[in-house]
Write a structure and sequence with these properties.
The chain has helices spanning about 15-20, 40-60, 70-85, 100-110, 130-135, 160-170, 230, 240-255, 255-275, 305-315, 335-340, 345, 360-380, 380-385, and strands at about 5, 65-70, 90-95, 115-120, 140-145, 170-175, 195-200, 210-215, 280-285, 295-300, 315-320, 350-355. The chain starts with a strand and ends with a helix. It contains 14 helices and twelve strands.
Amino acid sequence: MRKVYMDYAATTYVKKEVLEEMMPYFTEKFGNPSSFYSISRETKIALDEARSRVAKALNCLSSEVYFTGGGSEADNWAIKGIASANKEKGNHIITTKIEHHAVLHTCEFLEKHGFEVTYLNVDKEGFVNLEELKNSITDKTILVSIMFANNEIGTIQPIKEIGSICREKGVIFHTDAVQALGNVKIDVQDMNIDLLSLAGHKIYGPKGVGALYIRKGIKIDNLIHGGGQERARRAGTENTASIVGLGKAVELAMENLEEHSKHLVKLRDKLIDGLLKIPNTKLNGPIGDRRLPGNVNVVFEYVKGDSIILNLDFAGICASSGSACTSGSLNPSHVLLAIGLPKASAEGSLRLTLGDDSTEEDVDIVLEVLPPIIERIRGASSPWREKL
């Protein structure tokens, strides 16, 4: 059976070029970057090169890039670090109702420790209302954290405008760009971004490695304490091989950004057009260039999402009903509820995300296999038959 992978938003494979650059740092180039002999100097140089590659992609200084254990750690560090370092100024944080749980759960944690959090509403396509953002900022607001692009419905926020509002109000702006990096152009200077989180495994790099951009001059406390690694801001012996892989993956993503985007948009739009021909189907999120190029998220009324995923898996198609980080949850997506979907509709969601190796044949297979699956599931469920 031919396997069709359509869950690139959950994770990607490691590209051959990335793995080839990583391999020496597992074997002959194994020195601790904090030591002073030759093989350690080699690993230190490799870290510097990876940092430069990330900085070039973001248009920032290499000294503003700090490596982490992934996107979730970077989110935690950004939010907790700013909260801790700036609590004398205020205790108010602003985020949205559709953030990744690495942001939402961190904010909930801080609420238990005396901080106040405003969770902004979004419209039916997942966009923040800029006037609501402006009106929510007070003299106690120390941080705004709004994701660059949503991992479930693909909404790309007006990041430059959000950054401008925060800069004008004197409030620090953090964005989770884990899904955006490698799919859209990012310029932290032009977009007025103060902190930005990214992860390697979304861009054909290794899992368990990420980075946090921290604009020079930002007051932030450390999250992990210990040694003096990462210029005394993130303790722990560096994961050299994975950091090298992250740097190479970022470089490849920047080289192929335009071609990658065009390829995905073509397949995405074909897939959306085909799915919407299935009766009682609705697209979640925006259309066009305000949506991630490889993201498709639809709701099939009168169907449970887990049933769709299982049936697709039997047919050799890998897909999801939402974020991989909440795949074990029985609750409907908080993102879909936030854009106004009823609970019953949100339970029938399907997310299909495309990547570099996706083909028109893959799309054709999905569009051939999925309609009879939906019809069969609906037909087997007597409560739903009455509504059809």
